Structures are given as C-alpha cells and as structure tokens.
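I'll show one example:
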Amino acid sequence: MDITRIAVHDSVAAACPPEGVAESLRGLDCPVEVVGDDASFDARDCVVTFSPRDAFLEAAWVHGVRAGYDAFDVSAYEAAGTALTNSTGIHGDTVPETVVGYLTAFARRLHVYRDRQRASEWRREPYDAAFTLSGEQVCVVGLGTIGRGVAERADALGMAVVGVRRSGDPVDGVERVYAPDDLHTAAADARFVVLCCPLTEETEGLVDAALLDAMRTDAYLVNVARGPVVDEDALLDALDDDALAGAALDAHWEEPLPSDHPLWDRESVILTPHVAAATNRYHEDVAALVRQNLERVARGDPLKNRVA
C-alpha cells in the first residue's frame, strides 16, 4: 500500500472538527486535505471519515473515526480490496467516565435534583431513594476497551463487577466473566447493567423483554453501545410497569431522537445525544491512530484495527 494523500471527509464533523484532524496530521510526507462529497479517490488515498460513501471504495484505505463500524458494508470493502479500519481503543477513558457519571447520578439522585433546580423546587428525595455505589453490583456486557475501562473504574469505586464476554476469558477487576449464553444469570443480581458491546447480528435485540424481566426491579440499564442492542418497546414496557428503576441511554434507535419520543419526559431516564466518547482532544486521538497506521504501512506491517 502506497499512501500519497490523506483526505479528511467533512462527515468527521459529527465527532470532531475535520480541520482539527487535518491539522493534527500536518507534517507527514503526504498532503492532507479536508474534502466533501464531491471529491474523488484512487488507490493511493487514505480517507478519514465518520460515515461511509460509495466513492470511498476507490481508495486504498478508509479509517472510521468511531469504534463501531456497523454503518460500513464490510463485504463491499473486502470485495473492492479497500482496507477498512476503525477507532477502537481510543475510548478507554471517555466512555467509561461517562458511564461513571450515569451511575453516580442515579445513586445520588443528581438527575432528579437537576430537574428540580430548573423548577426552583427545594425538595428532597425520599429517605430510601439514594444509595452508594460501593457494594453494589454492575454487570458489564462486552469487555473490550470500553467495557474494561468501565470495569476498572467500577472496581475502584468498590463495586462488585461481573461481565459478559464472548471468549469467556478473565479480566482484571472482574470477579466473574460469563459467556453470552449466561447473560440472564449475569444480569440477575446486578444493580446496573452496562452495554458496551458492538452491534452485530448476535447482539441486535440482545436486551429484550426476557432479559429485562430477569433484572432486578431496582436495576438500571445503561446503553453506550448501539441503540438496536436494546428492544425499544420492551424497554418502554419495563419502565411503564416499574419493572426497571431507570435507564441511561447514549445510543438510540433513531438519531436524533424524535422530539415526541416518550423517553424525553421520564424522570427515571437520562438521555444524552450519543456523546459518551466526546472530548476536546478527540481529533488528536484519531490523528494519532492514523499516524500509527501510516508508520505500520511504511514498515509493511498489518494495519491496526483492521476490520476489512
């Protein structure tokens, strides 16, 4: 592979400033430019993008700035001979920190008090509403970079951590790792179930009515994975029936979430607009990964995070 140009597609703006990524890549042996949908590509180009475009299949290598790559047709890239890499590995601090924020808000009732602040309402929660994270159990579904980051922080907070991992291999800070077939057992005793898994055929609709029924009625669901990992109707029913204490959702079935969606007005739900990974250094993190892979190309080594 011989890369003679890096094209930063303007769709990157959904995650960070494209110009920031381009600037962080300056000084390389090849030119770097920000491009739009009118650009064309050839077999010497590297494209850095948030979203797929058919034209990218003409490039030598496409780098997605997200950890997930479910929006990309992997088989089409393989057929075209175009390398596809993702940005897994750079979210090990940002997303887990966001998850800790959700857990803390629920335990200390911060989301409720924030709502009351807007109404100038000085009113405490019932005595038994607040609790401490220490001693509570969290089930982390998916123990990749993000899941391990969640587990590490939860363990440091004194929480009992169990996890679900396809390989079943042990993970530091996780008391027990379950296989996916044992998900219901893993989630049954957890105060929090945190979804950190990729969206695949196996994980689509993973959180269904049966799993939600297996969870504690005082449990919270946290989704920093992808919206379709959760059955939307099943979650709404569980919340309506008080079969679940609440949910924190950063990934949604439809984005932006429609303004008339029933989740907006639920006090027991924390909604964020797919920003769990947001940081003011994201452009630098993406650029560092691209630089690392360019060095690997120069050495003739395999690309890191290659998915096609």
Observations:
- The longest helix spans residues 282-299.
- The longest strand covers residues 5-9.
- The radius of gyration is 21 Å.
